[in-house]
Design brief:
Blueprint lengths: L1 H35 L2 E4 L11 H11 L7 H6 L1 H10 L2 H11 L13 H10 L5 H12 L3 E5 L4 H9 L10 E3 L14 H13 L7 E5 L2 H9 L3 E4 L3 H9 L7 H4 L7
Parallel strand pairs: 1-2, 1-4, 2-3, 4-5
Helix pairs in contact: 2-6, 4-5, 5-6, 7-11
């Protein structure tokens, strides 16, 4: 009877012991990943700040400056050129291009700004994604180097920092679409990530110890093809689970390991 009892006890405790060993192994791998991590790179649009509402921006600009309606036929005729500018640049580049061709965008408004400056202001008046911002500041305070890698113009990022949308912390690197002289590079172009890796190394950041975070799957895939550790952003809550709870998943094997709470 005693033998049966002992066998029963072993059969009940073995799964728990096995689970505990799995948990210890998972913690060991994840904690090692934490020690190996040097820097965290964040995209801007859709990760740190909400994306610009283009329709709202243009509606507000037209309401404040009714004479802009005169430019609509011209804009429709040149829609392909405008679209190309949107693809190649960001709001600063688009407005520079428009202001060179239409005097209406250089007119001074009641606020003392030009129409061009006002539209840029409206486009940059985006809400912070507070959960991600808090997470970024927390990891900066823990000693990780913080990097920004975005398709935005450097002027847009500077503007977002100046108006307080992005926190004014000592970023180790801000890599924008115009960071490489003479080139306009945007994700998911492989050359973007080639140059981004060069910029990391130039700033004494190891590519192998940098985690890249983006909300677009095609950018994540392009980053991984460039041998960067990448994580798709879904929400601040998921990022909190993956990072703050030590769930730093760097490769396919580690992606199988769920986030373990402290």
């Amino acid at each position: 009877m005693k033998i049966v009892y002992n066998l029963l006890l072993i059969s009940l405790t073995l799964p728990t012991f096995s689970w505990t060993m799995q948990e210890v192994a998972a913690r060991s791998i994840i904690e090692k990943a934490n020690k190996d991590l040097q820097s965290i790179s964040f995209d801007v649009n859709g990760v740190l700040v909400e994306k610009a509402d283009t329709i709202r921006v243009m509606a507000t600009a037209l309401k404040e400056n009714p004479y802009l309606i005169k430019t609509l036929p011209w804009a429709l005729f040149h829609c392909l050129e405008i679209k190309n500018q949107v693809i190649r640049t960001d709001i600063h580049g688009v407005m520079d291009w428009l202001a060179e061709r239409r005097p209406e965008f250089n007119r001074v408004t009641k606020t003392g700004q030009t129409v061009k400056e006002r539209i840029i202001q409206l486009a940059c008046a985006r809400k912070r994604i507070e959960g991600t911002i808090d997470l970024m500041k927390d990891y900066h305070n823990k000693g990780y180097d913080i990097v920004i890698a975005t398709n935005q113009d450097h002027r847009t990022v500077d503007y977002l920092i100046k108006n307080g949308t992005l926190p004014n912390i000592p970023y180790k690197l801000i890599f924008t679409y115009d960071s490489v002289e003479g080139k306009h590079l945007k994700k998911p172009d492989p050359e973007y990530f080639t140059e981004f890796k060069k910029a990391l190394e130039a700033n004494n950041l190891s590519c192998k110890r940098t985690l890249y975070i983006d909300d677009k799957l095609e950018n994540i895939q392009a980053a991984e093809k460039s041998e960067l550790k990448a994580m798709e952003f879904i929400s601040p809550e998921f990022l909190h689970l993956d990072l703050a709870q030590k769930g730093l998943h760097f490769d396919q094997e580690m992606n199988k390991i769920f986030a373990i709470k402290n």
